Amino acid sequence: MKQIKDNSIDSARKQFIFSLVILGLAVIYLISPIDIIPDLIFPAGYLDDIPLLIATAIYAGYSYRKMKKGREQGNVG
After folding, report:
1. b/e per residue, 13-37, with b = 16+ CB within 10 A?
2. Does residue 46 sit in helix, strand or coil?
3. Which strand (E) or helix (H) includes residue 8?
4. Which residues in the chain land under pLDDT 70?
5. Which of 10, 11, 59, 74 is in Cβ range 3.0-4.6 Å of 5 for a Cys bridge?
6. Nearest 5 degrees, angle CA 50-CA 53-CA 57?
7. How many whole angstroms separate alpha carbon 47 and alpha carbon 17?
8. Coil/strand/helix, residue 35
9. How many angstroms from the chain centroid is the CA of residue 48?
């Protein structure tokens, strides 16, 4: 039974690390000059950047809570 809990904690940890990588890529996309809609077109330029950044931040928060919940339930460091 403990093996199943350890696997779920490892899985949640991997998901959290993956979400941080995706969040980092979204930040790089935000500051990158290569863009779908150029940022020079002020309001429209950020309409493709901001939702992407928000979505990845929400995913990172969700995966962090999942990892934290798994640690609390498994009582594993």
Report:
1. eebbeebeebbeebeebeeeeebee
2. coil
3. helix 2-31
4. 1-7, 74-77
5. 74
6. 140
7. 27
8. coil
9. 17
What are the extents of the domains in the chain? 2-74
- Alpha-carbon gap, residue 54 to 22, rounded angstroms: 12
Q: Which amino acid is at 15?
A: Q
d(Cα 29, Cα 67) in Å, to the nearest integer?
Answer: 26
Tokens of 22: 């995706």
Q: Token pair for residue 64?
A: 């962090």
Enter the pTM of the model: 0.69
Q: What is the Cα–Cα distance from 35 to 67, expressed in whole angstroms?
A: 33
51: tokens are 């939702």
Tens of pLDDT, residue by residue over 36-55, are 777 777 787 778 788 888 99
d(CA 73, CA 77): 11
